[in-house]
Fold each of these.
Amino acid sequence: MTDQEQFLAAASLLLGERGLTCDPELLQPWLTDWRGRFSGQAMALASPATTAEVSALMKLCAKFAVPVVPQGGNSGMSGGATPDESGHAILLSLRRMNAIRRLDPAAREITCEAGVILQTLHEAAAVENLRFPLTLGGKGSATIGGLISTNAGGTQVLRHGSMRAQVLGIEAVLADGSVFDALVPLKKDNRGFDLKQLLIGSEGTLGIVTAATLRLLPALADRAVLWAGLESVTAARSLLLHSEKIAGDALEGFEIMPRHSLAAVLAHVPGSRSPLQGAHEWNVLIELAADAAGADALPNLAQTLLETAFEAGLVEDATIAANDAQAEQFWLLRDEIAPAERALGPAVQHDISVPVARMAEFVAAAVPDVESRFPSTRAVAFGHLGDGNVHFHVLAPAGAVRGEWEATDGKAISAFVHDLVTQWGGSISAEHGIGQLKRDELGRLGDPVQLAMMRAVKHALDPGDLLNPGKLVPPCT
Amino acid sequence: MTDQEQFLAAASLLLGERGLTCDPELLQPWLTDWRGRFSGQAMALASPATTAEVSALMKLCAKFAVPVVPQGGNSGMSGGATPDESGHAILLSLRRMNAIRRLDPAAREITCEAGVILQTLHEAAAVENLRFPLTLGGKGSATIGGLISTNAGGTQVLRHGSMRAQVLGIEAVLADGSVFDALVPLKKDNRGFDLKQLLIGSEGTLGIVTAATLRLLPALADRAVLWAGLESVTAARSLLLHSEKIAGDALEGFEIMPRHSLAAVLAHVPGSRSPLQGAHEWNVLIELAADAAGADALPNLAQTLLETAFEAGLVEDATIAANDAQAEQFWLLRDEIAPAERALGPAVQHDISVPVARMAEFVAAAVPDVESRFPSTRAVAFGHLGDGNVHFHVLAPAGAVRGEWEATDGKAISAFVHDLVTQWGGSISAEHGIGQLKRDELGRLGDPVQLAMMRAVKHALDPGDLLNPGKLVPPCT
C-alpha cells in the first residue's frame, strides 16, 4: 500500500462510512467556495462526529504528514476553506458536530459545537428570551466554528463587537492532535497568555475549533430605525458622535450609503422607494435597540435624537420608521446595495477599515483618487461608518467584460486601493479575513515585524504546516 | 573589557547619565517588590526615555545575551517585576516614558506611554468629562505598561472587563529589539492573528509594552450604593442575577463579604459601623452607576431594585446609601477587609476564580474543607462575586508565628486551595498574575496542552529567554 492508501485505510477505520468518503460526487460541492471564485482538490472528505474523532484524525494526519483544510458552512468571503489544486489535503468538515451541549439561561452562556449554524444558535437563544448579538447575511449556512475562525463581523459590531467579543471559551484540536480545552468560562483568569485569542481569527491555521462557549444577551424588546439625508461623510460622522452622545448603549447600528448606491437599489428592487422626499448626497440608517429594561424609553430616545439632530443642523432631512415593516424596508435598502451594484456590471469590492475618526477624510480623498487614476470607473463607499469599516466598490467602465475586467484592470485597482488604505493606517481586511484571496497582499503590505511574529507563532504551533496550508500566513519572500 | 563592561559602556553611551545607572543606592528601592516578599539583584537600572531607546537597548541586550526585567510602578502582587538573585539581568524601568501622546475626546481614545500612572490617566480623562473605567488600590503607583502586562482587574471588571477589554492598540519592543507598532486603533481588523492579545497579560515575557491606546467612557454622573444582608452565597448569587435583570448595564459592582470579615473591619476601623441593624451571615455591596444619559433614572432604579429584592425574599435586610459620604463608608468597609484580616494574625491569601455559576457551591464546600483539613484555621472568602472571583484567605490558628507559619503550614494550605480550585475548573490566579509567586504552581496544576503551547510561543518569540526570565512560563519538568 502507498502511504496515502495506508492513511485512508486508517482514517476510514477511525471514522466509519459516514465519517470518511473519497466519492468525487460527494466531495464536489465542497471543493469550490460558494461564490465560485476558488476551487481545489482533496483526497477525501472527513466528517468526524466528536472532538475525540477530530483529535485522533489529526494525530493520523500528523503521522502521515497529510494537510488538513477545515471547513464549516463554506460561506467564507476569502477562500479560506477551499483546498489547493494539489489534492494532497483532506477536507475536514465540522458540519456533523452540530450539538448544543449546554445552555445556561441564568448565566447567559451557551456551549455549541463548531458545526452549529448561526441561525440555529439565534433560535435556541430566542427560546430562552435571549439573543446572540452577532448576525450576518450568511446566517443560514455559516457555522460557529467558521465564524470564530474568521472572527466574523456583521452589522451589530458597533455595539457588541465582532465574534471575538462573544467568545467566552474554546475547545480546539491542535496540529499534533492534542485537545486545547478552555471551554469553561472564567470571567477573570490571569494564568498567562490568553491562548484562545490566538485561535480566534486564525482561519484554521493554528488549530481546528471544535466547540465554543458564547455569551448571550437579553432579547431585544423594541427597536427604532431612523433614516437621514445629509451632504457628506463628515456630516455623517458628526451625526454618529451626536447619536453616541444621545443614545449611548442603545445605538446598535450606523450605516452610510451614497446617493449613487441608493439610486441603484431603487432601480434594482421592484416597488422600493426612498424613505425621504428629496435626494441627498449621503444617506444614514441608524438603529436604536433596547431590551426589556430600556424598551419604555426607546421611542422618546429616537424622537429626541431626531429633533436634536435637526436643531443642531446635522441633517438635511430625516424620518423614523413608523412600524416594524417600514424598519425592515429601510434595512432592505441597505442590504440590497451589493446585489444592486453587481447588476450594473463588473466591479471589484474591498472590505477595508481605517480609524473611525479618519473615515470621512478617507472617503473624500479615496473616491476621486481612484476615479481619476482609473478613468470611467466609479468608486462607491458604503457600510459600517461607526466601525470605521466601509465596503469600497469600484465599478467598471461601461462595456467592460465580466470576468475579464476583474482579472486585469480590477486587480490593478485593488492593489491601488490596498496601497491607499495602508497609507491611511487602515486594514486591507476589516471583517472578511485573509484566506487565499488576500494572502499575497498581506505579504506585500503587512508590517514586516508583525509578519515575522505571525510566521514564528505559526511555525511554533504547526511546525509541519499541516493546518490549512497556503492560507492567511504569507510565506517569507 | 569583559562582556559585561562592554555592554554597560555601550548602554551608557546609548542612554546617557539619566538613562543608566549602576549605583547600588539608586537600584536598591527597585530590587524588592513593594510587599517585601521578593528581592533580587541587577547589574544596572536602565530608564530609557523613548521607544527608540528601548529598541536600541534591547538590540544591545540581544547581542550580549543580557536578560531584561521590565518594571512599571513596582506594585505587582506576584513578584513579576523583581529580578532573580543572579545579578545577570538589567532592570528596565519604563517610568520615564510617561507622556500622554494623544487624547481624542470625540473618539474617546487616549494614547499613553507605558510609564503613565493610572491616577494620572484618570485625571486626564476627567478633564474631558470622560473616565477610564479600570481602577484598583495601587492606582497612585501602578503604570499603564504594568497594568497591560498583567491584564489587571479591580472592582469595575463586572461591567467593563479587565485591562484587556480597555486596550485598543499597543506598541511594544520585542526580544530582538524590533518594534511591534499596533497603536492605531481599528475597530475592525481581520488581518490574521491578533498579536496584541498575546502581549496583554504576558508579564513582559514576550515583549516590553512601551505605549498603548485605551478606550475612554463618558464620565459618571451619578451612582447608587446598596448594602444587603443575607444568609448564604447562594442567596447572594440569586440577588446578583436579580440585579442584572433589573439594573442591566447600570450594575457596576457586586461584592460579597462574610459576617466574620465585616466584624473584623468594624473592630479594626475606628468609628466604623455596620450599614444594617442586625448581623447577617453574608453582606453584599451593590454599586449602580450611570453617565449623563442614564443619571435621571438611577435613583428610581436603585429603589426598584431594593423593593423587588425584598418582595422576592432575596434579602434579609437592605438599605441604600443616603448620600455620597455614606456610599464611601460602605466601600470603606469592603476595602478594609484585607488590612483588618491581616491585623488578626498571619494568613495566606489566594486570588482565585471559578465559574460564576459555581461560586456559591464552591465557597460552601471549600471553607469547611480547608478548616477541617487544617484544624483551628479560619477560611474567609470575600470579593467580586459577579466575576466569579473571590479572595480566599486562610487565617492562622491563634499563636502562630508571623513569617514562620506562612512558610510552612501556609504553603501546604495554599497547595491545598490551588488543588481544590483546579478541581472546580477554576483559576489559581484570577487577577494578580503568575510572576514568580505562582510559576511552579502553574507548572504543577496547569493543563499540559496549554503549558506546551505557552512554551512554544515563548520560545518562538524569545528564543534566547531574555525577556523577564523565570517569570510566568513554567519550565519543562
Note: Chain A has a mean pLDDT of 95.
Amino acid sequence: MPQMNRRIVLASRPQGQVSLDNFRLEEAPLAELRDGRFLVRNIYLSVDPYMRGRMNDAKSYATPVALGDVMGGGTVGEVVESKHDGFAVGDKVTGMFGWQDYAVSDGAGVRKIDDTRVPLTAYLGVAGMPGVTAWYGLNKIIAPRAGQTIVVSAASGAVGSVVGQLAKLAGCRAVGVAGGAEKCRYVVEELGFDACVDYKAGKLYEDLKAATPDGVDGYFENVGGEVFDATLSRMNPFGRIAVCGMIAGYDGQPVPLKQPSIILTMRLLVQGFIITEHLDVWPEALRTLASLVAQQKLRYRESIVEGLDHAPDALIGLLRGKNFGKQFVKIA
Amino acid sequence: MPQMNRRIVLASRPQGQVSLDNFRLEEAPLAELRDGRFLVRNIYLSVDPYMRGRMNDAKSYATPVALGDVMGGGTVGEVVESKHDGFAVGDKVTGMFGWQDYAVSDGAGVRKIDDTRVPLTAYLGVAGMPGVTAWYGLNKIIAPRAGQTIVVSAASGAVGSVVGQLAKLAGCRAVGVAGGAEKCRYVVEELGFDACVDYKAGKLYEDLKAATPDGVDGYFENVGGEVFDATLSRMNPFGRIAVCGMIAGYDGQPVPLKQPSIILTMRLLVQGFIITEHLDVWPEALRTLASLVAQQKLRYRESIVEGLDHAPDALIGLLRGKNFGKQFVKIA
C-alpha cells in the first residue's frame, strides 16, 4: 500500500481569471485503511467548466471548494486495496475523488464500470456526467420534435457534441457554434451536425442566420454572452432554451443578455439546470448513452494531458477554449 | 341607427416614445346592418401596455396595427341594433372592438356579460384579460406553494394587483414593486400585500432585499429593466419567473438583463407567455375571478378618462406610469 498521496489544493481564490498560483501541489501521508473502506488509485481526472464556479466563494449552485481543500471533480480509477465487501482489488470505478493520486471511499457515490465495450474515459464524458447533461437538457427541457432546428454552443465540447448527435438521432437539424474553423470542421464532418458557425469569424449573427433558415426551436446554452444574444434573436415562437453553462461569465464579470424581451415576444421557456440534481434520470440516460457508444453511434474526441501537476494548466486552457473535446488529465 | 362613426387610427409609427401625432381622429359613415350582424355602441375602451408593441412594424407576438387602421383593444358596450339571433338590443357585451364609437359584429369573439353583480369595467380588468393574465402566470407558471414569497412588478396595475391578491389567497407572502409612495401605500393598505418596494426611492435592491428576507420563489415580470435585475438577484433555487410584460423596453431600446447567469446558478424557470394563446384556461379563470369580485375578495382601482379623443393621452400616460389602476376611456 502506498504511503504518500499527492494532491492539488485550492491555494487562493481567483480575482478574475484563474491563474496557476491559485493552486498548490502538496503531499500528505495516507492513513491506514479501516474496515468497510477501499483505496482507489485515480487513473483519469475529468476537467470541466463548472470547476471555475466552485473556486469562488459566492452564492451559487456549487458548494465552493474551501481554501486548502483538494480540487474536486470526477475520476475513473482502480481499486488497489479493499476492506469493503462490495469492491475488490482490480475493480474499475468512477466517483468524485478530485485532483489527487489516491482516495479512500466507503462506496457512497461510487459506481463500478465495465471497460470491455466502453473505454474508461467515456465514463467521464459521453457516457458520464457530460453525456447525461446533454441527454437531460435535450430530452427533458428542449424536447425536440423531428424536423426542428436545435442549436448548441460549445458544440465540439464534451456536452455540446453529444447534444447535437442526439438531436440528429431524433431527426432534427443540428447546428453547432464553436470557436475556429478546425472545431467547426470536426463538428460537421466527424460528428455529423448539419452546420457549425465559427463565432470567431466575426459575423456570428449573419452566419447563424444562414445556418438556421427556419429559425431555432431549441437552444442548448453552454457559453452565454454574444452566442446567447445571437441565438435568442433567431428563436421561433415557443422555443425552449436549456441553460447549462455560462462560461463567458465564469471569470467574475457578469455578461448581460442584450434583449431579454425576446423571452416574452417569442414566448420562450428558459430553464437552468444542474445535472446532479436530477439523479432520477441518470440510470436511463447512462444506459442509453453507453449503448450508443458501444454501437459507435456517438462519436467523441478527447484532450488528454499527462501528469497530476498539469491539471491546473488543463483547467485554465479549458476556460480559454483551448481544449478540443473532453478534457482529461491522465495521472496513472 | 347612427350614421357616422368616430374612430382613432394609427397615423404613423412611433420612433421611440409614442406621441400624439402617431394618432388621428377621423369620422367615417356606418354601413347599413346586414343579416346576422349587430351594432355595438362602445361604452368603455381598455388601454393596455401591449398596445405599444402593436404600434411597431416588427417581428413580435402581436400582429402590428396597419397604418390607417383603427387602434385595436378590448371594449365593453351595449347592443344598439341587431339582425343576429344570438344578440338582442340592450345586451351588454365585451369584445375587441378598438378605439371607436361603434362596431359591427357577427358575434365571433364577443361575450355577453352580466353587470348585475360585477361592474362593466371589471370585465376589461380584474374579471377580464388582465385578471386571466394574472391567474395564468401565477397558477400555471409560478405555481406557488403556501409560505413562498411571490414578487410582482407594476403591482398597483391591472395585472399586478390581481397577482398579489391571488398569491395572498394562496397563502403566500406577496411583495409588490411599484413607482411612488402613494402606489405602494395602496398596494399594502388596500390590496393587502405584505410589502411593496418603491422603485423610485433610489435603493431598489436594498429595499427589495429587506422585503424578501427568505428570498423570492416566484416573480411575475411586468416591467423588465432594473426591477428584473434586482429581483433576479433575490431568486431562490428552483424559482419560477412568469414573463408577462417588458414595458421598460417597449419604447424601442432593448433593455439588457445584467446577470443572466443567475438563471443557471439558481436553476430558474423563465417562461414568456401571451394570454390570448391559452384560451383553454379562460372559462375556468374568468369564473373564478368573477366569483371573487362578486364576493369582494378581489379589490381593484380604475383610472378613467372621458372622451374618445383622449384615448391617445391615456395610452401615453400609461406607458409613462402615470395611471393608477386599470386604465379605461369612457366614451358613452
Note: The interface with chain A takes residues 53, 59-61, 224, 228, 237, 243-246, 249, 254-261, 263-274, 277 of chain B (CB under 8 Å).
Amino acid sequence: MDFSPELIAIGQKAKDAARKLAYSSTANKNKALLAMADALLAHEQEILVANQKDVEAAIQKGIKKSLVNRLTLTSEGIHQMSDSLREVVNLADPVGEGEFWTRPNGLRIQRTRVPLGVVAMVYEARPNVTVDAAALCLKSGNAVILRGGSEAIESNKVLSRVISEASERQGMPTASIQLLENTDRQWVQQLMKMNGYVDVIIPRGGAGLIQTVVKESTVPVIETGTGVCHAFVDQEGNFDKGVSIVFNSKTHRPGVCNALETVLIHEAVASEFLPLLGEKLWDYGVEIRGCEKTCAILPYASKARSEDWGTEYLDLIISAKVVKDVDEAMDHIYQYGTKHSETIITENYTTAQRFLNEVDAAAVYVNASTRFTDGGRFGFGAEIGISTQKLHARGPMGLRELTTMKYMIYGEDHIVT
Amino acid sequence: MDFSPELIAIGQKAKDAARKLAYSSTANKNKALLAMADALLAHEQEILVANQKDVEAAIQKGIKKSLVNRLTLTSEGIHQMSDSLREVVNLADPVGEGEFWTRPNGLRIQRTRVPLGVVAMVYEARPNVTVDAAALCLKSGNAVILRGGSEAIESNKVLSRVISEASERQGMPTASIQLLENTDRQWVQQLMKMNGYVDVIIPRGGAGLIQTVVKESTVPVIETGTGVCHAFVDQEGNFDKGVSIVFNSKTHRPGVCNALETVLIHEAVASEFLPLLGEKLWDYGVEIRGCEKTCAILPYASKARSEDWGTEYLDLIISAKVVKDVDEAMDHIYQYGTKHSETIITENYTTAQRFLNEVDAAAVYVNASTRFTDGGRFGFGAEIGISTQKLHARGPMGLRELTTMKYMIYGEDHIVT
C-alpha cells in the first residue's frame, strides 16, 4: 500500500509521543487533564461557533435529525465534557500496576502494566468522543490519532487543538493527541494498514463502520458495538420482574448497543405473561414483532419476518418469540445473538446457573436489565467502548483495557542451560 | 468470499464442540489428556510409519535438511509428546478463575475466565505442534482447528486422529480437535476470514507465514514469533557477564525467536570488551558482522550492510555495533527491534532502570540472557507461542492466554434509572 507522507508523519509523531508518554507520571498526566478541562471552558465560544458551522452544513446536506442532534454541542454539553475530563483525573492509573515472582534460579520477573502505544480511534458524528477518547488515552499513557466523521470536522478541529495545546503546555509530549483533519476515506483506509505505527484501532459507531474496520484493518482491532440482546422469561420467572426488566432493557435508551431487541418467553407462561408485557410495551409505543404464537396471544403484534431475529433495531421495536424451554432459548441466542448482553428472568436456581454458564456473551444476567453493561455502571468509571470480541477486552473497556503488559526481568548473570 | 461447504461444516462442528467444552470440568479434561498420552504410545508404530512417508516425500522433493529434521519423528520424540500431554494435566486450569464485586445497588458482578471458543492454529512442518496445540486448547476448553504444513500431512492425520479419538472416548465433545486434511492454500485463506466460526487464529512458523496471516486474516490474530533481539553492553557492564550473556543468548539455540541477533557496545568499553567477546564467538564459529568501529577492533569481523540491522538471522551470525551511550542503544532498538526480548549488561542502577522502563518489548532484561523468554522458563509450564503484539497477550502465552473473560451478573429485579 502507498501511504500518504503526511499520514506517515502523523504516525511517526504519534510513535515518538507514545515513547515519552509511556513513562509520564500519573501526577503529570492528571495536571494535563485538568488543564484540558479548563481550556474547554475557556474556549467555549470558539467551540460553539465551530460546531454551529458543522450543524448548519449538516442541515443543508439534509442529514437526518437524530444525527444532527448527536452532532450538536451546547454550553451545557461543553461543561459536561469538561467535567468528564475531571472525572478521568480521579480514575486510578493502570500503568505500573503488576505482580512479580521469583524463579527457582533467582531470576525476578516483574509483570508490569504499560500503555499500548498508539491508539487510533475511528468514530462518527459525536464530537464528545474526541474529548473522551483523548482523555482516556492520555491517562493510560497512549498517544491517540483521532478520526471523527466529516460532519463534525470543524468542531473536532477546535476541540482537539484546544485540549492538545493545553496538554502540551503542561509538559505532555507534542502530538500525544492528533486529529486527522483530512477526512478522506483514503486516509482511514491507510490508517487501518499502518502496522508498526498504530498498535490498535478502535472503531466506534454504526455496524457499517465497525464491519469495515474489522474486515479491512491489518492493525489489531478492538471490535465494539453491535448488540442483539435477548431476555428470556422462564417458566419460573417472576412476572413483575419480567415486565419491569424487559421494559427497562427495551425502552430506557433504545438507540444504544445494550438495549434489548428480542424477548423469548417460555411456552408454559406465554399466554399469561405476554399480555402483561405486551400492554406495557404497547402503551409506551413499542412495536412488537412476534412469532406465530405471540401473534395469537397479542392481537396488536405484527408477524416477525425471519430477518427480525438478529436485527439490532436501535428503536422502539421488539421481537418476541415463544420457546419450548431454556434450551430452545439458549439455542436461539446462540444462533442470533452478538455475544453482547443476555438476561434471564427466573426464580429457579439451576436454570439461572445453566444460563449463566452456557450462554456465551460478554455479560450474562439473572433478573437484571441488559442496560447495566456499561463501564460506569460496572464501576470502571469511564468507558472507551464495549467490546464484543473475545480477544484482549470483553465487555465495557476502561483504562486498563488500553494497556498491555511488559515483563521486566532482573538477572544476576543469568544464562540458560 | 465463497467458503467451501466442507470448511464451513468443520467450522460449525468446532463451534458446537466449543459450546460444550466451555463447561467441561477440569477433571474430565484431564482424563482425556491422559488418554491421549496413552494413545500416542499405543499407536507409536502407526505414527512412525506415517511420518516415514512424509520424510521420504520431503527428501524426494529435495526439501532442505533442517526442515526434514524438524519433520522427523522418533520413538523418543513420541514419548516426549506423550510426556508433554501428562505435563499439561498438571497445569492449573484457568477456566473459572476470577474475581467479583458488588455494586452500590446490590448487583453482584462476577468476572470469570472462560475459553476463547474456537482457536485455529496455522503452523509449518513440526508434527509435535499438532499434539501440543491440541492439548493446550483442550485443557483451556477451546475447540481447535489445526492446519499444519503439507509436508507433515500424513503424520498429522494419524496424530490428530489418535488423540481426537482418545479424547472422544473420554467423553469430550466430537470435533474438539480437528485437522484440516486439505492443505490447499485456498482453505487457509478461507479459514482466515471465518469470523463467526473462528474466534482467534494463531500462526506459528516463519516470518512469511506470520505476515501473511496478519495481513490477510479478518479473524483476530495473535502474532507470534519474529525476534530481532538485542544486548547492550554498557560502559559500566561487567565484562564476564557481558561475554557469558551475549554468548548464551546467541549460541544456545540460534534458530529460535528469543536468540540474540545484535550486540550493541558502549564506545567507552568497545576496544576492551569486543576482543573478549569476539574471540569467544569466533572460536564457536559465529560470524560477526560489525559496524566500522567494530571492524576496526576485530579484524575477523566482516562489514555489516544496512539490512543486517533488523535481520533475524536464526543462525550463527551476529551483528555488532558500537554506540555512544544508552540513548543511542535504545534508539537503535526502537528502530530495529521487534519488541520481543532485549537485555542490558550493566552494574549501574539508574541505567538499568532506564533501560527497563524505556525499552518497549515483551521482555526486557538486566544482566540475563534473552533465551529466558519462554513459557516454561517463566514458570507458566507450557507455551502456545510467544506473542510479539500488544493486544490480548504479550510474551510467552500459556493456558491463560487461551481464555477470555465473561461477566456473570446476579440481579434481584435490577433496572437502570
Note: The longest strand of chain A covers residues 403-414.
Amino acid sequence: MADKAQIQAAIKVQGEVVRKLKAEKANKEQIDEEVAKLLELKAQLGGDEGKHQFVLKTAKETLTGKYGEDSKLIYDLKDQGGELLSLRYDLTVPFARYLAMNKITNIKRYHIAKVYRRDNPAMTRGRYREFYQCDFDIAGQYDPMIPDAECLKIVHEILSELELGDFRIKVNDRRILDGMFAVCGVPDEKFRTICSTVDKLDKMAWEDVKNEMVKDKGLSEEVADQIGNYVSMQGGMDLAERLLQDPKLSQSKQACAGLMDMKQLFSYLELFQVTDKVVFDLSLARGLDYYTGIIYEAVLMQTLPAPTPTSQEQNGAVGEDAGVSVGSVAGGGRYDGLVGMFDPKGKKVPCVGVSIGIERIFSIMEQKAEASAEKVRTTETQVLVASAQKNLLEERLRLTAELWNAGIKAEVMYKKNPKLLSQLQHCEETGIPLVAILGEQELKDGVVKLRTVATREEADVSRAELVNEIKKRTSES
Amino acid sequence: MADKAQIQAAIKVQGEVVRKLKAEKANKEQIDEEVAKLLELKAQLGGDEGKHQFVLKTAKETLTGKYGEDSKLIYDLKDQGGELLSLRYDLTVPFARYLAMNKITNIKRYHIAKVYRRDNPAMTRGRYREFYQCDFDIAGQYDPMIPDAECLKIVHEILSELELGDFRIKVNDRRILDGMFAVCGVPDEKFRTICSTVDKLDKMAWEDVKNEMVKDKGLSEEVADQIGNYVSMQGGMDLAERLLQDPKLSQSKQACAGLMDMKQLFSYLELFQVTDKVVFDLSLARGLDYYTGIIYEAVLMQTLPAPTPTSQEQNGAVGEDAGVSVGSVAGGGRYDGLVGMFDPKGKKVPCVGVSIGIERIFSIMEQKAEASAEKVRTTETQVLVASAQKNLLEERLRLTAELWNAGIKAEVMYKKNPKLLSQLQHCEETGIPLVAILGEQELKDGVVKLRTVATREEADVSRAELVNEIKKRTSES
C-alpha cells in the first residue's frame, strides 16, 4: 500500500479535480466518478492500522496486502477507464469481501471457480497460470475448533474417497509460529518474512532455509538454529502437550493459546476418526498474510516420475519440485481478520476454510487412469437408439423423444442410414451400456430389441415396458 | 482488422526487431516472443480472404470479426506484456477455437461459464456486464437438420420443465434472410448491416426499423417495404412450403435451400413433439456474423411489471425494454464456418448450438418464488444432530461422523451447549427435515430420538437402524 504522505498528496490533487469539474458544471456522471475516487483515497487514509476502510470494488486494492510475498504473483490489468484491476488470485479474499459487502455473519458454502497466478507453469504436474480452485469455508462466531475440525474431516474424506494413495494433512497454528519466533528472538517486524522462509522447508533442505534466514534476512545463526530445533518437530496431541511444558515456548501466551486449541482440535479429530493422517508439524508455515489461527496443508505421499523439463520451465523455477512428489493438493486455515478489513466499521467475522487444488488432483487421477489402462467412460448416455435397416430415421427419432421425455439419457446417431455395426461400435467406444434396436419386424410387433453391449445379449422388450427395463438394467450396473 | 498495407509495414518493422535481437545475442525467451509476434503478423496477412490464419492465442484477434455490430460490446484489456486481450464475449467462439486447436471434428457438450459485455446493465431484469451463459453445442458432419432439431428439443425441454410460463421458439435461416435481401434488391455489401437492423424488430416498431434502413443505411423506400412484407410472416411447415412457391423468393437458390431444410426441420420437430411452441418467423435475424444456417431464439410470453429505472439506466438505453417482456432467454443457430477460421488449413467443422441465458432465467424464477411466497429450501442437509442436555458435544460429533461416513448429509451446530429450541429453530429456518436428538437416556439405551420437523413426531430408533431410517424417510419426501 502507498504510504500516508503519498495518499495525502493524492487527496489534495483529487480534491482540486472535483472542485474544478463542479465549477465548470461538468456532467453529473463525471463528477460522481471523481468524487468516488476522492472518497476512496480518503478511505485508504482511514483510521488506525487495524481498521482499513475500502470503497468496495473488485479491484486491485481488494487484493493488496493480503498475500504477503506471494503478491508478486497477482495478475494486473487495466480496464478501459484506466483503473488498476487484477485477476482473482484465490477464492478466499473474494469470499471475505462478499461477506462484508452483504453483511453476512454466518455461512457455510463451497465455490468452484478459476483463479490466476503469474507463476511458472508446469503442465506435466497440473500447474497452470489459469486454474480452478475448489474452496469450502465456514464463517461465523462459534465455539473453538469445531468448524476447524470439520474442514479437516472434509479434506480427509475427499482424499480418501478419490483413492489418490497415501496422504498426510499437516497442521500448525499461526500463533504457535509467532510465539516460537518470539521466544527464539526473531524481531517482531521479521515474523512474516521469516515465516515465508520456513514455508520453503517442504521444498528446500534445512541448510538452505537457514542460509536464507541468516544471509538474506539477517538473523543470527543462534536464532536460526533455535528455530531449526522447533521446526523439526512432528507429532499429534502428545506433541502439543509436550510443548505446553516446554520451558521456552510456554513463556509465550499466544503459543500457549495455539497449543491449547491444537489439543482441543485433536480431540475432535479423534471423534471424526481422522487422526491417522493428521500431523501437527511445526515446519508448516503457509506464506499468506491473512491466517490468524490454525493452518493446514494436505500432501500426497506418492512420488511421480521426474518429467523432462520444457525450455520454458528451464528459464524459470527449475529444481523447485523436479522429480519430487506432486506435493500440496489442499490447504487452508483460519482467517478471523480478513472480513473486517472490508467492513467500513471493521466488524469481524471469524472464518476457517480449505482450498482444494482440483486440477492437480485431476492430473494425478488422469495419470493413474492411464497407468492402469482402465477405460474411462466418456459419456453418461444409458442407451443408443439404433436401427437394423434403412429408412428408419423417423422411427429412431420418435423413440428417442419418448425416452427423453421419460427421463432416460438416450442418444441417436445423426445419420439417415447408419450401419448397425457402426452404431454398435460407437457404443463400445464411448461406453454406452445398452442399445435399443428398431427394425421392420420389431415395429410390427410393437417391441424393441434391447441389447446389452458388454454381453451382446439381446431380448425383445415391449414398447410399454422399455423405459422401466432400461431403468432397471442401468441401476444394476 | 487492419488493412493489408498496415500489416505489411508492421511485418517489416517486426522483422528488424528480430534481426537486431539475434545480432545482439539476446536471451532465447525474448527472441522467441518477438518471433511469435512476427509469425502472427504474417499469419494475419495469410492467403485469400476466406482462409484467415491465426496464431492460436486467447487474444483480441480471436474475437475480432465474429460478432458484427455487437463487437463494440467486447471488453478490451491489456496484459503486462502490452498485448491486446479481451474478456470472453460468449462461449461459442472459444468453443470453435478449442475444436480447431485440438483438431476435434466430432463432439457434443455443454459448458457453463462467465462472459462479459460492455453493455448497459439492467439489474432488475437480470442483465449484467458479467454474467453466466450455458451453452450446448453439437459439432460434426451429419445429415441435415438432425442435430439442429435436437437443439430445439433441448430448449423446449428446459423452458417447459422450469415452468417459466408460456414461451415461443422463433426459427429462421441465415440463407433465407440473405436470399430475401437479394430478391428485394439489397446490395450484397449491405446484407449484414440490414440484418442487424431487422434484428431490432423485437424491440422497435416496423416504422422505426424502416426509418433506420432508409435514412441511416441508404435503402430505397421500395426495397424496405418489400423487406417489411416478408418479415411480417410467421408460420410453420406450411409457411416454408408457401414460400417455396413464392415467385420472387423462389428465384434465390440459397433461400430455397434454407426453405427445404426448414421443412425437414419441422418434420423432425413433429417427431420430437415440440411444434406447439416453435414458430418459423422471417423477422428473426440475430446480429452475429458467424451464423450460416438455421438461427433461433426463445422468448417468454409473460410480461413483468415495469421496474423503476435506476439513475444508471437512465443514462443508458432507457426505453429499450422498459415494462415489456423479459424477452430472449435462449438463442443460437448453425455456424459451419467458424471452426475453419481458426484452423491453419481452413478445415471446417459444422456446428450447431444454443446458448441459455441462465441468469435471466434465474431472475425470473426468483421473482416467481417471491410472488408465490413459496419457501425455498436453502440447504440439502437431511438431518441435524442435536442434543437435549449439556455436555454432549463429543457425542454429537461422534454421531455426525458416523452419519457422514454412511453418506448422510448431516449437520451439527458448532456450539458446545446449544439450546434444544435453537437447534429446532435452525431446522425450521433452513428446511432441514429431520433431527437426530441425543440425551443421557438415549445414549444409555443405544438409541437416537428421530424427530420429523414438519409434524413434530418423535420416535426412538436404534443406533444400528438410524442410517437406514434416515434414508427411508428422506427418500419419501
Note: The radius of gyration of chain A is 30 Å.
